[in-house]
């Protein structure tokens, strides 16, 4: 894995998984650029202090009208960028029938989790593809979730947005495969429930819906997840390319079940052996 990644942009690194991934990649000697929203500026500044050489950009990906110009600025500053890790995400808890959330909040969640990642992927795709065509190994990571495969009633916008990322990543990889370009990898990152600030504001409510903290599914500690993620990342294909999905725990189970079911359906229809 290490030989494939030299300069990596991590979008959504103002805490949680994104920040932890940035710290680990920096420890591996990689050139890191991180992004976060304006409210993450303090975290990003501290991250840059902690990790010498890290560059950061304040970038709210929901401002879609500024997306292309931001991508252009990043590529101008880092023309040898070989890896993009799209990790930005938000999660809201609500009940459509009892206490629906405002339309604007639903739109923001879907924009952050699905629309923006798709547009960002498209914006960086030609750069990564062209670099790969020249012989450089390139990579595009998109973070979905175990909830893409196992939806729960707590998150009526989050679950479908992550299912959309899972589907988009597979489609993007299919299109890439059809080009014959073997130097670019498209990877779906599939975390389980991890102890991060993502659901901190509503963890009590979701625990209560599962019968209380003693009965509720508890998150994997962030450090444990990062260790397992990087172990899984090293499990490359025989040709040295990255796995199509890098899942941990319930995330790995969800991706495996999808693949097995999909294989059976394709075989039954004569579209695969």
UniProtKB/TrEMBL annotation:
One of its GO terms (cellular component) is membrane. GO terms for molecular function: oxidoreductase activity. Keywords: Oxidoreductase. The keyword Oxidoreductase applies. Pfam families: adh_short. PANTHER family: DEHYDROGENASE/REDUCTASE SDR FAMILY MEMBER 7B, DEHYDROGENASE_REDUCTASE SDR FAMILY MEMBER 7B. Belongs to the short-chain dehydrogenases/reductases (SDR) family. This is Short chain dehydrogenase reductase. It comes from Chaetomium fimeti.
